[in-house]
Amino acid sequence: MSKYFKFVFLFIFSTSFAWSQDALKTDAQKLWQKRDEKESLAQAIQKFEQLHKANPSDQEILLSLIRSNFIMGDFHTTDKDEKLKILEKAFHYGDQALALNSEYSQRLKKGDDIEEAVKALTLKEVPLMFWTAASIGKYARTKGLFASIKFKGKILALISRVEQLEPTYFYGAVNRYWGGYFAVIPGI
């Protein structure tokens, strides 16, 4: 009889947990819809972080964290140090998400350069690659010349891979990225 109660308890607990995660995700997505409001975006980020803690390998949640932090750092934050902190958080979430591709992760661990490692990334990872590169680029530009030089190879590799796999991603974002990149490159 006690096995039955344990099973019922586990079933109810797991169903309740899944329901609460779904509700949390729905709340986060509703707040995300108002991302032009700083407070709404901050609340969305908190909810996405809770979801990430519950399931660290959920690429959809990681993408939401990358984009949310990118927007918070780029559009809602004026203090340079705070902006850098938020943008760094965005691209660290991006690195986590990309590392979920085991072949990519193994290539980096064995010492392959980033240009070779990104060849393991697939169409599924295009949004992750783009927003990670955008976050790194914005971070580097805000930080200064040396950061731009440090991250240049990674940014170029990620954007080039997005261009190879889905050149029209996010309404032609690759072309916009290259336009911005080549507009500022003389300063790098």
Outline:
The chain is mainly alpha-helical and 188 residues long. It has helices spanning 2-32, 38-54, 59-75, 80-99, 102-109, 114-117, 126-143, 145-165, 169-184. The radius of gyration is 19 Å and the shape is globular.
Written description of the protein model:
Helix content is 81%, strand content 0%. By secondary structure, it is an all-alpha fold. α2 packs antiparallel against α3 and α7 (126-143) packs parallel to α9 (169-184). The N and C termini lie far apart (71 Å). 32% of the residues are buried. The model is unreliable at 8-16 (pLDDT under 50).
Principal-axis shape: globular
The termini sit apart by 71 Å
Secondary-structure-based class equals mainly alpha
Q: What is the gyration radius calculated from CA atoms?
A: 19 Å
Main beta sheet: none
Low-confidence stretches: 8-16
User: What is the residue-mean pLDDT, rounded to a whole number?
Assistant: 91
Strand content: under 5%
Count of separate DSSP helical elements:
9
Order of helices and strands: HHHHHHHHH
Oligomer designation: single chain
Tell me the total number of β-strands.
Answer: 0
